[in-house]
Design brief:
single chain, 113 residues, alpha+beta, Beta-lactamase Inhibitory Protein, Chain:B, domain 1, 4-stranded antiparallel sheet, 3 helices, globular
């Protein structure tokens, strides 16, 4: 089951961020005409799903929606990518951990701190 992915820049509006995400997604879909219609729709709508290739996850999210640095580590053959999402205030932030094996999305976890 796909999950809608969202990201908002702390100093920009949600509509600006969504327009940027959509532009990146559209460019990716246009450059990959062999994608299935389902994959195209997921990417254009910002959804990620288990089994999705890393490249499609990045396109769906509009590039990695992270503040640098993105922390990456490998444990038991699973690649972990930690992202501090570009939203929140000084007292509350959102983050996401993406889990990949062989460049396929195994799952993800979102948190607020």
């Amino acid at each position: 089951m796909a999950l809608a992915a969202t990201a908002a820049v702390a100093f920009g509006s949600c509509s600006q961020v969504e327009a940027e995400r959509r532009s990146i997604a559209e460019a990716y879909v246009t450059g990959h005409p062999a994608l299935s219609e389902e994959a195209k729709q997921d990417i254009l709508e910002g959804r990620i799903s288990k089994g999705m290739p890393r490249e499609q996850v990045v396109a769906s999210l509009g590039g990695l929606p992270c503040k640098p640095p993105v922390h990456r580590w490998v444990s038991d053959g699973i690649e972990h990518e930690f992202c501090d999402l570009r939203e929140g205030s000084r007292t509350q932030h959102r983050g996401r951990i993406l889990l990949f094996r062989a460049d396929k999305l195994l799952g993800w976890d979102e948190y607020t701190h």
